[in-house]
Specification:
rod-shaped; single chain; 4-stranded antiparallel β-sheet; Gyrase A, domain 2
Length: about 200
């Protein structure tokens, strides 16, 4: 038998409308839920991407600092080398005249004394030659002048070679007869110092 619906048609229509409203609300809620889940998912993706960007920015900053440090180091090395070259150039023909004269004083013959001395550095020196020295002295006789030349030529006085008497003349000091003379010698590289290297600080 067919069921008999005794309810008025208005009740059936209200039930149908309520059911449709409920279905619509459920659909809206489901949509909002899916939308919220999607937003949370994409927010997490965005946050992760931002974290990655922040980490990469820190790495880039660290690399930039390292590059800047290397650049400063290279610039400092260039400045150091330029100053070192300047010191070497300034002292390329450096002679410690104090040591030179001190060594000379130990070898002067007992009957000879030096009155004048001058030394000159050659700007364009011959290989092995850095300049010339000139002496003016007095001895009691010609043998004393010869002894002077032998002293300059000795192996005990490194730094000069080729001593030569340019002038010699008899004279007197009071009642004593003396001989005045002038002599020259070539200044060699053995007279040079290594002060350039000692003045340049070592850089590890």
């Amino acid at each position: 038998m067919r069921p008999i619906n005794l309810l008025p048609p208005e009740v059936a229509q209200q039930r149908t409308r309520r059911r449709r409203v409920a279905i619509g609300l459920f659909g809206v809620l489901a949509y909002l839920l899916l939308l919220g889940v999607g937003m949370l998912y994409w927010d997490s993706k965005v946050d992760a991407a931002r974290d990655d960007l922040d980490r990469q920015a820190e790495v880039n900053l660290s690399l930039e600092r390292e590059v800047a440090a290397l650049g400063e180091s290279a610039e400092m090395q260039t400045q150091y080398q330029a100053k070192a070259d300047l010191v070497r150039y300034a002292l390329v023909s450096d002679v410690d005249w104090g040591i030179f004269l001190n060594d000379l004083a130990r070898l002067i013959p007992p009957r000879v004394w030096v009155e004048t001395f001058s030394g000159a550095i050659a700007l364009e020196a011959v290989p092995g030659v850095v300049g010339q020295v000139t002496f003016g002295g007095i001895g009691f006789g010609f043998p004393d002048v010869s002894a002077w030349l032998r002293a300059l030529e000795s192996d005990q006085f490194a730094g000069i070679t080729g001593p030569w008497v340019t002038t010699v003349a008899q004279s007197s000091i009071g009642a004593d007869a003396v001989v005045t003379f002038s002599s020259t010698a070539v200044l060699t590289t053995a007279a040079l110092t290594d002060r350039a290297e000692t003045l340049i600080p070592e850089v590890p």
